[in-house]
């Protein structure tokens, strides 16, 4: 697989920071075309700053970002932004349209897509997130999960190569979170979309092919979700929820039970317990 | 201080084409000293009920008794100040309400509004900052230079500065990272003890209900459909699904084990309860010591 994102020795500092202080320190990683990568880290670790460096909302002090073969610069930033869609934490901060369909059409209007094609793409996108019946409604009157699905419909209509989700599910209730995650999985299944999701949610991280852990502006670890989840209680310090099986393991350990060291899924944990108890 | 609802109905914009009935025949008590969780899916009427707890909304019919004050549809909006002081509401994303130049002034704003002189209010503010686990060095900082979690704590300190008897929390951990959520929930448990507070928690997190609440009110379509202890509420998973609610993670996992033939009575709600129940059933070989590999 070819690399669609390549970040090399990225350093970033905010204008108000002193010269010896960096928010991002020598970050390097690549994302393969079609891959889903989760970036985790506690609040203030630099995750969102990293995302904003990738689509040129912020410019690094040094280092390079290459997206789909183009090195990010003042000249290429507009081309690169066309390839990247971003969905942020608070859906209320990103609505521009008076109705759901106007909002989904916004980026297409910006790109000068012909009206007939625009109508079809908006309609199809809303259908894909199961929001077609809300096309003429006011975005403000939707639930949190519905709002994020409309935001995703905007991305589907614009057809970016890369989707960056910046804590896109963190304000949603469990049902809303589930709906949004389902929608992203469908989007991935129906196109060769690359997804970069910044998250604290264990289910979102588990959906990824690879997890990158950021702490204090540095990339401290990377691995498949199962490798990262082995950390158990230390996951909370990394800004990630503990998978349920790990929480139960920790509780059993406190009771003096010897538990397997490797990461178990919930089913794996249930199998392990059932086997021990049924063979007793 | 207890709050008691009797036959409360509430209708938004009555007599207009936008008339919407939000609460129907609410009869419920929030016991003095309880940690009450208010749960229900989006649009079930939780927020409307919440605004009745300090008379921000008055019932369209029926009465709400808050301590010794009785609120009826005709209660005057005057003289509600003491009520608002006694029932402190922390709304969702309370950090959006910060406005002062410094942290200490922001926290002192509430008490000053209720007639405390500036010097005393500033003194209270200092105490409150410690209470919410923030360092004194933040007192003179601008609240807008703080992290999201710190800003939220400052906003909560502002509510605590009014020294309420009841603390109402509307999804207080939304948008925080896992460590921030845990710290925040532990802080409320500690404050409840130290300050002798009655706590009302509106939440979608069933694990928080299982871990912290002792009383639960379930709402659906503007009605209270069940009240009881967490144990009573979570013992019927099918009923919860019908009302678009989930189970605590432990209870859901215990259900999987029960489907395979294990037994739990009562059904556990937290991982420590489940671990304790499993310890009774696991073979001796899984407990520490070198012998455990001998089998």
What integer is the average pLDDT of chain B? 92
User: Number of helix segments of chain B?
Assistant: 11
Strand order, sheet with most strands of chain A: 6-7-8-3-9-10
* CATH 2nd-level architecture of chain A: 3-Layer(aba) Sandwich
Number of helices of chain A: 11
Cα end-to-end separation of chain A = 49 Å
The third-level CATH topology of chain A is Rossmann fold
Class by SSE composition of chain B = alpha/beta
> What would CATH call the homologous superfamily of chain A?
P-loop containing nucleotide triphosphate hydrolases
Largest interface: A-B, 43 and 39 residues
Architecture overview:
The complex is a heterodimer of chains A (280) and B (295). Chain A is of the alpha/beta class and 280 residues long. Chain A has one domain (3-242): P-loop containing nucleotide triphosphate hydrolases (Rossmann fold). Chain A has eleven helices and ten strands. Chain A has helices at 47-54, 77-83, 100-110, 115-128, 144-158, 174-190, 202-207, 225-229, 234-237, 244-254, 266-278; strands spanning 3-12, 24-32, 36-40, 62-67, 70-71, 84-87, 162-166, 194-198, 210-215, 218-223. In chain A, the strands form two sheets. In chain A, strands 6-7-8-3-9-10 form a six-stranded mixed sheet, with helices on both faces. In chain A, strands 2-1-4-5 form a four-stranded antiparallel sheet, covered by helices on one side. Chain A is globular, with a radius of gyration of 21 Å. The model of chain A has no long low-confidence stretch (mean pLDDT 90). Chain B is an alpha/beta fold. Chain B folds into two domains: 3-238, Rossmann fold (3-Layer(aba) Sandwich); 248-286, no CATH class. Chain B has helices spanning 46-52, 81-86, 103-113, 118-131, 148-160, 178-195, 206-212, 230-233, 237-242, 249-260, 271-281; strands spanning 3-12, 20-30, 35-39, 61-66, 69-71, 87-90, 166-170, 198-202, 215-220, 223-228. In chain B, the strands form two sheets. Chain B has a six-stranded mixed sheet, with helices on both faces. A four-stranded antiparallel sheet of chain B has the order 2-1-4-5, with helices on one face. In chain B, a hairpin with a 2-residue loop joins β4 (61-66) and β5. The longest helix of chain B is centred in the middle third of the chain and has 18 residues, at 178-195. The model of chain B is unreliable at 290-295 (pLDDT under 50). The chains are: A alpha/beta (280), B alpha/beta (295). At the A-B interface, α6, α9, α10 and α11 of A face α6, α10 and α11 of B.
